[in-house]
Amino acid sequence: MGLITMNSLKKRRLAVGGFFFLTGLCFSSWASRIPDFQVKFSLSEGQLGSLLLGMPLGSLLALPLAAWAVYKLGSRAVVLWGTSFYLFFLITLGVANSGFQLALMVFVFGMMGNIMNISLNTQALGVEHDYGRSILSSFHGLWSFAGFAGAGLGALMVYLAVVPFFHYLIVFAVGLGVVLLFKGSIIREANTKESSGGGLVLKKPDAILLRLGMVGFCGMMCEGCMFDWSGVYMAKVVQPAKQWIPLGYVAFMGAMATGRFIADKLATRWGKVTVLKGSGILIFAGLLTSVMLPYFATVVTGFLLVGFGTAAVVPLTYSMAGRSSQYPPGIAIAMISTISFFGFLLGPPLIGFIAELLHLKSSFALIGIMGAMITVLVSYKNQVFALK
């Protein structure tokens, strides 16, 4: 490969990585301020759970729209326009003046998030193909690292008593800078059904992909728990000083980001199945620690373990699905992504409903069991091992 071509590829990788980082920053900016919204609108755990249902529901309903948009317009156009709308709807979260308005904006924000997810992964798969080696995990690592950075910014905003609207204006300004800086390196991909995820809802997964989808389901349920409820758990159960509340989320996101950057090396050394087994154990141990020892240091440590545990689940299941002999890689990944996403859809509201009936600690205990199920699902000697 010539020098000019390699330089071009590096610019494309940097640009796509920049947009992954930005979308992660937008999401974590919302998630880090959820406790503030709960207080502002006097929401109970059950009401907050219902409100949070809007984001994954919007994401799920956006799936066919996103695939159609990428197919018709190309992922470049969807990335650039989608980013602009994603930033705009982040600001609308900050100006909502009722719980109903916030719920509506959360729904739309969720739709835009999944549109960005599909279009950006289409771009990332193109870059990975041209590189000739696996780099997709590093993009997801950048998204997670942005979550860590966004959680840190959120903690600073809470400490400085900056309301969400002005917090989100700062993120909006950063986002516009990213778009202007990198838009020239986001290229038009070949308009094919494979690249756009065509046939996504028309395919039925085989037994191997169904098992992998269930692993992803458990992993994303745990992720959804931590994204939406870690701050609430700190505020309601641990009850530290207000400025320390976001640090549980910071610990989780920082560990998940770090874990995604090293997941490929660990999988190469010990095997993907072994890493997934360890991931489930870490999630279970982290949440069990947080439930049994609900103190600041132990909960932050527990959330750190959950972050390392969830880090590898989605990237490794995607990688294993991409080796399916029954379906093209893009279709296989899309199918397990759809199954997995229901975990993200059901987890956060389920936590709210259980917390309303019992206690928030009971909800986190249930999610810990879901983490242990990852280890159980990959421990059986079956065809999944053929995809490792």
TrEMBL record:
CDD domains: MFS_MosC_like
Membrane topology label: Multi-pass membrane protein
SUPFAM superfamilies named in the record: MFS general substrate transporter (SSF103473)
Transmembrane segments: 47-71, 78-96, 102-120, 141-162, 168-187, 208-232, 244-263, 275-293, 299-318, 330-351, 363-380
Gene3D superfamilies hit by this protein: MFS general substrate transporter like domains
Keywords, sorted A to Z: Membrane, Transmembrane, Transmembrane helix
Entry-linked InterPro entries: MFS (IPR011701), MFS_dom (IPR020846), MFS_trans_sf (IPR036259), MFS_Transporter (IPR051788)
Organism domain of life: Bacteria
Residue stretches making up the Major facilitator superfamily (MFS) profile domain: 208-388
Compartments, as annotated in UniProt: Membrane
Protein name in UniProt: MFS transporter
